[in-house]
Amino acid sequence: MPPDTIPFLEWFVRSSWGLGFAALWGALWGSFANVCVHRLPRGLSVVRPASHCPSCQAAIAWYDNLPMLSFLLLRGRCRVCRVAISWQYPLVELLATVLTALAFGRLVLHGSGELPLQLARFVVYGHFQLVLLTLAAIDVEHMLLPDRVTMPGIAVFFLLGRLLGDVTLVESLVGMTAGYGVIWLIAELYYRLTGREGLGLGDGKLLALIGVLLGWQALPWSLLTGSVLGSVLAVPWLLVRQRRGATETMRHVAIPFGPFLAIGAVVYLLLLFGRSLDEIVSHLPML
Ligand SMILES: [Zn+2]
Fold it and tell me: What is the CA radius of gyration of the chain?
């Protein structure tokens, strides 16, 4: 590369252009996440065919497929058949945009290390958040966390984590094993005590995915945040479900645990990951 390239790149990335591109990157991948959320649980390819309306099957033109904007311009309806488009689409795109911009701020603008390492971290941890978002949205809609996402995810993020070297090999392997093990243990105990299935092992694979990239230190935080949020949000969740005609009672309420584990992991990544206790305390006034 010519000698001017590095300073230019450095300037570009650290200017508001960098943050803007990161947000746009997140929005575009958020759009792809929606495709995955809709198609993966149905066993369909996420590549082909091109986007089409799930109701009338009409192909969606690129200008009707812009993240968030098209939903607003079309006022939430398909251009051809006028059927309402789910709120899930712009919401997932908005979350993907915000989370990716936050990861850029945390890992590149305010991160340690040289620019190439910072950008590599942004790509790995940014996409890790998008995988968690995809899994959470699938869990909300279908009450399952597909092996098709979690299992390859564990392998891929294990390798990417080794390349980055932010956690040690032991922290990663213990994180993966303990993540799965603790959910397996809780599920087993719950089943022995009540005779009913409480947690799914999909939650265990999700926690293994979190542990393999972020290390075992992420597990207590994710579990604690997940349990607290799950308890607090169980009642509103039940009310929404009952309005839609579900007939669960509070004792047997089925709520997906995956989204809460994912939120816990994202909060850990954005606030605590890679920081010493002193650094965390010194950042507290900013929170
Ligand atoms: Zn349509």
Answer: 20
How many angstroms is it from 237 CA to the middle of ligand 1? 29
Separation of CA 276 and ligand 1 centre (Å): 52
274 and 162, same domain (yes or no): yes
254 band by pLDDT with thresholds 50, 70 and 90: low
Three-state SS sequence of 142-167: HCCCCHHHHHHHHHHHHHHHHHHCCC
User: Does 174 share its domain with 97?
Assistant: no
Tell me the residue range of the domain where 269 lies.
143-287
**Do residues 156 and 237 share a domain?**
yes
* Residue with token string 């966390």: 145
In a domain, 232, yes or no: yes
CA of 50 to the centre of ligand 1 (A): 14
Does residue 128 belong to any structural domain of this protein? no
Q: How many domains does the chain have?
A: 2
Return d(Cα 15, Cα 7) in angstroms, integer. 12
The predicted-structure confidence for 132-166, as pLDDT tens digits, reads as follows 999 999 998 888 899 999 999 999 999 999 999 99
Is 120 a member of any domain?
Answer: no
CA 215–ligand 1 middle distance (angstroms) = 44
User: What distance in Å separates the CA atoms of residue 223 and residue 219, rounded to the nearest whole number?
Assistant: 6
Taking the centre of ligand 1 as the mean of its atom positions, its distance from the CA of residue 15, in whole angstroms, is 41
* Each residue's pLDDT tens digit, 177-227: 999 999 999 888 888 888 877 677 899 999 999 999 999 999 999 999 888
- Residue 104, pLDDT > 60, answer yes
Instruction: List the end-to-end C-alpha distance of the chain, in Å, as a whole number.
Output: 40
pTM over 0.85? The answer is: yes
